[in-house]
Amino acid sequence: MPASMTHPHSHPQPGSDSRSDARPEARPEVAVRAPSALPRGGPASAYPIIDAIKRGETPTPRIHDSVRAEPVILAVNNFQLWYGQSKALHGITMPVAKGKVTALIGPSGCGKSTLLRSVNRLNDLIEGVRVEGSIDLNGNSVYARGVDVIDLRKRLGMVFQKPNPFPMSIFENVVYALRISGERNKKALADACEKALRQAALWDEVKDRLKASAMGLSGGQQQRLCIARAIVSEPEVLLLDEPCSALDPIATLRIEELIHEISSRYTVLIVTHNMQQAARVSDYTAFMYLGRLVEYGRTADLFQVPQLRETEDYVTGRFG
Amino acid sequence: MASARFETRRLTSDAMFGVCAACAAVIVTLLLLVSGYLVFIGAGAINLSFFTDVPTGDVAQPGGMRHAIEGTLILLALAAAIGVPLGVASGVYLSEYSHEWLFASPMRFIADVLTGVPSIVVGILGYELVVVPVSRWTSNSVSFSGYAGAAALAFIMIPIVARTTEEMLRLVPKTYREGSLALGASKAQTVLRVVLPSAFGSISTGIMLAIARVAGETAPLLFTALGSRLLTRDPSEPFPSLTLQIYTYATGPYPEQKNLAWAGILVLLAILFVVNLLIRVVASRHAATRMGKS
Ligand SMILES: Nc1ncnc2c1ncn2[C@@H]1O[C@H](COP(=O)(O)OP(=O)(O)O)[C@@H](O)[C@H]1O
Ligand SMILES: [Mg+2]
Q1: Is the domain covering A46-315 a CATH 3.40.50.10610 domain?
Q2: Is the CB of A273 under 6 A from ligand 1?
Q3: Domain residue ranges of chain A, discontinuous segments joined by +
Q4: With an 8 Å Cβ cutoff, are B178 and A164 in contact?
Q5: Residue range(s) defining the domain that contains residue B66
Q6: What total of structural domains would you count in chain B?
Q7: B151 alpha carbon to ligand 2 midpoint, in Å?
Q8: A contact test, residue of B99, B183, B191, B193 with most A CBs within 10 A
Q9: What are the Cα distances from residue B189, in Å, to A167, A181, B93, B185?
Q10: pTM for the model
Q11: Of all protein residues, whose CA lies closest to atom 6 belonging to ligand 1?
Q12: pLDDT, tens only, B223-275
């Protein structure tokens, strides 16, 4: 169930061109739509696709043409994942656009985190996990035999639901990824630390206490520190798993602004169960349900002119 | 009605508090009695020469215990040097690697059994496994030595340190490990740079407990270090220790030596107190940095 819905302050004008290919530079304001009466397609049930999924089928996801037009950085191909006997991801096929923010939405337990953790193979740590299909990062297979997982993870950054700074100084937290890669040069470390903290909009708050423990920061600062830590080695994709779910609204807002800012430099794949957040921060949104991809398109389209009734009713909070 | 129920609840709560407070008071009183008694008796025999002199051989003027104090400190340092790395490494294995390899649960079981082995057994083990083979090797008649004593003490420390390390590492949040691995750290880097340091405070508390436990041991040293009246710093020789010297003096017939034994007990307790205090300071300072108060 969506946590909260804002009141729609502007109804999309009929015929307003939210699908136009000429996108403005700034991300358009996307209002989450109020439930409206869309002509029903299916004869028997309102949600034929959801019904099919519940029957255990894997319907072909509705992927908008706008997605396919983008250059791909991360290609998920017919990806399946099992936790022991239970299957958590069913034939996910999903290109992720380079240099954009892509949000994964869907009800709790639908496999968003699982998909995210499949990208950096963090699921390898869980006993009994088995995968099929493929994920390619910039053309390199993630799951092929002989892939150096450590090398792969160095190319990705990840931020978790709960801020998890290590119990060491702020400085050491930020440069951790560089240290483990063997960087010893003090100047290089200091420069990288400052750069990452600036990009994470934390520099001004902590520049005088880099040696202090990271555990003394507020929750929001800790999460921004984790973002700095994740981008210090300039990852190809930044994976964010509900990065604001443990934060207060103001800290959440700051992180969202931050995501917006760093999206000019990095590709971001963000999991959120907050629809407004997806609408605010992302360029593309993928709607998942029970381990399947349902609909995937430009965020503005998905929230305002979704192609599936399921998606519309989910993003407007009528089901889910 | 509701207020009556509230009343009983308050009474129960007060009663529980009373019982707990009384028990705590009894324990504290006992502790104060014992230490007060020790200080009362032991302090009389403590003077400067207790710390500076070695045994004279004269039962009326038995000298001091410098050799034994130094011996105990050296034995503890040696035992810790052997036992702490081995114990911590085993604890890391049990907590971090055991699900990838075999032997974990037998190892854990053996460690638990070893923790409960009577220390006299450890002494005999030290005799059979260190003293006798070394004697054969060097063709000495019997090679009692400080090394053998330290090995016996280390043998007691290892399972304690291993199990506390394991427990403490298990308490380190999984999110630290995932965070580190997600940044491309290897498992070894994760353990050494994140997991172990974040458990440093509690592991050092475990080490302190293990040191405190062996500091008071006599039985493991009886057949290994043997004890000595000489001031020696060579652990390949029979080696003095406070506990052995206390044992010798306390079971002997001479009142002057018995007095020295009391003083020795007091000093032993003081050493334990300092060990506790030191590592507590280290641990709390570490906790303070973790909480960001540094
Ligand atoms: N470690 C695990 N072991 C077994 N099942 C798991 C594990 N983690 C997640 N699952 C299951 O996989 C499904 C997807 O979970 P998850 O990816 O966490 O969903 P989401 O992030 O969308 O809330 C859920 O049904 C969940 O119970
Ligand atoms: Mg999740």
Answers
A1: no
A2: no
A3: 46-315
A4: yes
A5: 47-293
A6: 2
A7: 51
A8: B183
A9: 15, 10, 14, 6
A10: 0.81
A11: A83
A12: 999 998 888 889 999 999 999 999 999 999 998 899 999 999 999 989 888 88
